[in-house]
Design brief:
- The protein contains 7 helices and 5 strands.
- It is α/β, with parallel strands linked by helices.
- It has one domain: Rossmann fold.
- It has a 5-stranded parallel sheet.
- The protein starts with a strand and ends with a helix.
């Protein structure tokens, strides 16, 4: 099974945000153990580096991102994805639509996010972390 893990779930894990951290941890564990194959969008790396600046030092952020790159496949952004996202009226947010474009390229079965409503225009199944884990019987 292939999944794209959205930025918010990664932040839940790294920043230990409650009450979401445990579900995020369990999803990471599945990816680390290769029970599922996870990917993240390339722009997630940039967003994480910026968003986590209040929580982690520069060196901690660099180290954390390097570890993420060993666990997840990073799907690139190119002009075709950007153009497709800009032309897609099913999404109101370009960042979410770029996540979706990366998910399509990686041929995922699920997008895992805490903001499922932001992916209403997705042709890919979208699950919140807790619901995804429940579907797996975990």
């Amino acid at each position: 099974m292939r999944v794209l893990v959205d930025t918010n779930t990664i932040i839940d894990y790294i920043a230990n945000r409650e009450p979401y951290a445990n579900d995020a941890y369990r999803i990471f564990e599945l990816c680390v153990n290769k029970d599922i194959t996870g990917c993240i969008a390339a722009h997630t790396i940039i967003n994480l580096f910026y968003i986590l600046r209040k929580e982690l030092s520069v060196d901690e952020r660099k180290s954390t991102i390097k570890k993420l790159c060993r666990v997840f496949t990073v799907v690139g952004i190119d002009v075709m994805k950007i153009t497709s996202a800009l032309d897609n009226d099913s999404f109101s947010d370009i960042e979410d639509c770029l996540q979706y474009e990366c998910a399509k390229e990686f041929n995922v079965d699920f997008i895992i996010t805490r903001n499922a409503k932001d992916f209403a225009g997705s042709s890919i199944k979208v699950e919140e972390p807790k619901e995804f884990l429940t579907k797996l019987g975990l």
